[in-house]
Amino acid sequence: MDPLSRRPIRAVAFDLDGTLVDSIADLTHASNALLAELGRPPVDLPAVRSFVGDGAPKLVERVLAATGGLPSPDEAARCLRRFLAIYEADPSARSALYPGVAETLGRLAEAGLRLGVCTNKPMAATTRLLDDLGIADRFAAVVGGDSYPTRKPSPEPVLGLLERLGVPPGEAAFVGDNEHDVAASRAAGVALVLMVPYGYARVPLDGLPHDGILEGFADLPGRLSA
């Protein structure tokens, strides 16, 4: 979108994993705890990094497929429940905010912007993680992978989040790290789509229809006003 024709940004929506928080170590720990119970070999960090982005059901499905194949639907459902029980018990033990996140969110909130989180992670783990890492109070609304019938790359959760924030898509920005964030925010009609360079993208960011890649999270305020 032409910056000269864009309305002022009043809200910013953020992806969570790979954008605000580096959570791969905790996701890997929970995956390997499940696999150990099943008598399967562990998965490593790079593998789990390539599995995330589509919500917990897909993550568990990919972990199982990579370590011996998918079980029956009933057993797969049991494995998902067990993974969530392990992960949600302590989703932040090995996770950390990316550099500049806490400070930049503070600057944006002080500037009067409405902030929200739109993630494919289940809500229970999302709210616990945000609270544990000390940034929950920065967000006026949060939606997870189980908040709506569909997840990103569907625009439904993005539109739902913006409705909760009380800001139309044409006055909102979305900050994410992968192709689903771009697809969902573009389909929702978000005015400005920005990417972080350090996340869990599975395709090259340069080929996606976003509005730019931040050099670091702390560069975000300047890009919103450009």
How is this structure best described in words?
The protein is α/β, with parallel strands linked by helices and 226 residues long. It folds into two domains: 151 residues, 3-Layer(aba) Sandwich (Rossmann fold); 66 residues, Putative phosphatase, domain 2 (DNA polymerase, domain 1, Orthogonal Bundle). 42% of the residues lie in helices and 11% in strands. It is built from nine helices and seven strands. The strands form two sheets. Strands 5-4-1-6-7 form a five-stranded parallel beta sheet, sandwiched between helices. It has a two-stranded antiparallel ribbon with strand order 2-3. β4, α6 and β5 form a beta-alpha-beta unit. α1 packs across α4 and α3 crosses α4. The radius of gyration is 17 Å and the shape is elongated. The chain starts with 10 loop residues before the first strand and ends with a helix. The model has no long low-confidence stretch (mean pLDDT 95).
Short description:
Pathway: Organic acid metabolism; glycolate biosynthesis; glycolate from 2-phosphoglycolate: step 1/1. By secondary structure, the protein is an alpha/beta fold.
Structural category is alpha/beta
Order of helices and strands: EEHHHHEHEHEHEHEH
Head-to-tail CA distance between termini: 12 Å
- CATH superfamily membership of the largest domain: HAD superfamily/HAD-like
How many separate structural domains? Answer: 2
User: Whole-number average pLDDT?
Assistant: 95
Strand content: 5-15%
Strand order of the largest sheet: 5-4-1-6-7
Number of helical runs?
A: 9
Organism: Azospirillum thiophilum
GO biological process, one term: glycolate biosynthetic process
GO molecular function: metal ion binding; phosphoglycolate phosphatase activity
Function: Specifically catalyzes the dephosphorylation of 2-phosphoglycolate. Is involved in the dissimilation of the intracellular 2-phosphoglycolate formed during the DNA repair of 3'-phosphoglycolate ends, a major class of DNA lesions induced by oxidative stress.
